[in-house]
Write a structure and sequence with these properties.
about 325 residues, Beta Polymerase, domain 2
């Protein structure tokens, strides 16, 4: 069950779970530091913490907005960091926001979606229990563990995107027409969103690593540099994914264009043949219409109609044959030019 959780990290680095935010606030100044993990934030939940912890109203407002880009805001009493967590399901990239408030003796994480599920919390608790030597040194170490966990989860989504791209490439090689161009464009949009997110997250890590934040001790910057290296690698992968999708789109459009040109060429040949046949039979149709407008002996007389109609039919045949050869001559002359 996903729910808000509250912890006290003792001076020895041990993690103790508490029941309520009020209990956690009460124990905050008794040694060590506290961690508020808020799930599905509401204005009431955040207001309960914003006063005692000195959270800036603008940062609280960002926690309630799902359409923010990763960033870091350094305030006098605390630092606000917005990071993204990824999941890739049903060929769609899902980006969940994770908000963190870092103070001298507290860390607040705020997530709206299913970032910290039961198993993930068990992993985080296990990681903390095996890193008591570092965790006891302050909330900046705990924040590193959480960000490192988020970044590791990113790689799972990135791998899924890479596998999806490989499927698209196989379809392009085997049966190009089976490729769904709409799915390809949606994947391209997800990759661009991925690239944009990682780009801004790198900027956040750069600010932390260059020691602009007094709440992050100097001896911990090496841990955050490791996270930055991972993000840098992911950014390069996102760039390569974008190039692959662009190439696949260009190849697909080229194939579709060639197919359309082939179909148009076949249509032109068919129309040309029909026009050729129509041109031959149009004068014959005119003559047959004139010749058959009246009773058979009215124009030729009752005696010579047999000879006249025989000659008339022979003349139509000669006209059709001569028209055929004239059209063929014109066609050869046209192609010769």
């Amino acid at each position: 069950m996903k729910e808000s959780r509250f912890y006290h990290i003792t001076k020895d680095g041990h993690l103790k779970k508490l029941d309520t935010a009020a209990e956690t606030l009460a124990i905050m100044n008794s040694g060590g530091y506290v961690w508020f993990s808020i799930y599905q934030p509401t204005i009431e939940k955040l207001t309960e913490l914003s006063g005692p912890l000195g959270l800036h109203p603008l940062a609280v407002e960002d926690c309630l907005d799902d359409h923010q880009i990763p960033k870091i805001d350094i305030y006098p009493k605390n630092t606000f960091i917005l990071f993204n967590a990824y999941s890739f399901e049903a060929n769609r990239l899902r980006i969940d926001e994770v908000n963190l408030f870092l103070g001298d003796n507290f860390l607040v994480t705020v997530s709206r979606n299913a970032l910290f599920e039961e198993k993930q919390f068990e992993d985080i608790e296990r990681i903390i229990s095996t890193n008591t030597k570092n965790v006891k040194n302050g909330p900046a170490y705990l924040m590193h563990i959480l960000l490192d966990k988020i970044v590791d989860q990113k790689f799972i989504a990135i791998q899924a995107i890479e596998e999806t791209l490989e499927i698209f490439e196989e379809k392009m090689v085997v049966i190009p027409v089976s490729l769904d161009s709409m799915e390809l464009q949606l994947l391209r949009r997800d990759i661009l969103a991925l690239r944009k997110s990682i780009f801004h997250e790198r900027e956040v890590l750069i600010i932390i690593c260059r020691k602009d934040n007094k709440l992050v001790p100097e001896n911990i910057d090496i841990y955050y540099k490791d996270i930055y290296d991972h993000l840098n690698k992911y950014f390069e992968l996102a760039e390569s994914f974008r190039e692959i999708v662009t190439s696949l789109s260009e190849i697909y459009l080229s194939i579709v264009s060639n197919n359309m040109a082939t179909a148009a060429q076949k249509t032109n040949v068919t129309v040309e043949r029909l026009t050729f046949i129509t041109t031959i039979f149009m004068p014959l149709t005119l003559l047959s219409g004139i010749g058959g407008m009246s009773e058979y002996s009215m124009m030729t007389g009752s005696v010579s109609w047999k000879i006249s109609y025989s000659l008339f039919l022979i003349g139509m045949a000669l006209l059709g044959i001569s028209t055929f050869y004239i059209l063929k001559w014109v066609d050869r002359r046209k192609k010769g030019f």
